[in-house]
Amino acid sequence: MSVAVFHISKKFEKFPALWDVSLEVQTGELLALLGPSGSGKTTLLRVIAGLEVPDAGQVTFAGEDVTNKSAYERKAGFVFQAYALFQHMNVFENIAFGLRVLPRARRPDSEAITKRVNELLQLIQLEGFEKRLPSQLSGGQRQRVALARALAIEPRVLLLDEPFGALDAKVRKDLRKWLRHFHDQTHLTSLFVTHDQDEAFELADRVVIFNEGRIQQIGTPAELRQNPTNDFVRSFLEV
Asked: What is the pLDDT of residues 188-222, one digit of tens each?
């Protein structure tokens, strides 16, 4: 499913987080939003998710205007930087949560929920971990559970906010490879926020470089390295 934003602007009090941002994400694409802290990338991700309301502009999913629809109605899967798992729930119940809180008319029965959770445990390679609490998991395992919880509702688009930011270097590197493999299996349209160039260039099909609330350049990793279009991009990428 394609995702697009048109002329999005957003201020927090007097701080301009986004200025007239337009972007189109192709169906099945893995897109990185890259830039320094405070550049607007997380704000854009939250606008797409429906967690922030833009001051101006439009958001579309597969050509449908969802600007005024709630996060629930947009059916976007969101993975937070700090996992946001329920500490009192085991792995199974964390993954099942989104299914259990669906309106009664749409809620699967207990057997269907169990089947879906078991499929996701296999997908994230954590079969046998369903009874463990988050405190009994490594950081990389918790991140995979957070991903499975976002996928449980079969989202139209997957949004990840600095998904590896809380992990050490080795785990980050391993999980990057895992996420790229996962995306190649599922082809789910996905956007992720990062300030790590290596992460963006290793994972993404295309990279969007932000600074001060504006898009500076969009391209494949090779295009950005070979042809930076302004001084900021050249300096940021050190090319």
From this structure: 999 999 988 999 999 999 999 999 999 999 999 99
Residue-wise DSSP of 140-195: HHHHHHHHHHHHTT--SEEEEESTTTTS-HHHHHHHHHHHHHHHHHH---EEEEES
The CA-CA-CA angle for residues 76, 98, 66, to 5°, reads 25
Q: Three-class SS of residue 220?
A: coil
Q: Where are the alpha helices (DSSP H) in the chain?
A: 41-49, 71-74, 91-100, 110-123, 139-151, 169-186, 197-203, 221-226, 231-237
Cα 106 from Cα 203, distance rounded (Å)? 34
pLDDT per residue as tens digits for the range 119-155 = 999 988 899 999 999 999 998 899 889 999 999 988 9
pLDDT tens, 24-42?
A: 999 999 999 999 999 999 9
Query: CA geometry: angle at 159 spanning 236 and 219, to 5°?
Result: 40
Distance CA 116, CA 190 (A): 21
Amino acid identity, position 78? F
pTM of the model: 0.90
Cα 235 from Cα 139, distance rounded (Å):
32
CA distances from 138 to 76, 97, 133, 168 (A): 26, 21, 11, 11
